[in-house]
Amino acid sequence: MEMKAIAYCIAQAEFPPLAGEAIEIFKTRLAQTREGRGLSQAELSRLSGLAPSSVSQFEAGIRKPNFDSLRKLADVLQVSADYLIGRVDDENQSQTEVLFRSATELSADELRIAREFVDFLKSKRS
Asked: I need a surface site. Which of 2, 31, 44, 72 has the fewest CB within 10 A?
């Protein structure tokens, strides 16, 4: 068996394509999250660099996103791909993960400032 074919089989086994209920969850969450951010399909398309027809077809459940498209949508909507496909149910948890990934790019001084700001925000709840 060719190496490409083996890699394809492994990828399919580890990351099965969206089907059935997963597509329903994805299309619903994509539309709800987009609307919750006050974006039209055209705006989401422009911000993500995807064709307007792709966004429309994703929300209609006609077309399944590839990995790159899913990543772009998640980035623009500031949620994780796991949230969009239904692997996690807490949208805020996803935003925390996005924030954490961003924090890994900060300098030590910037991290100190971020920690102080988080402490300040937490103190405002009391």
From this structure: 2
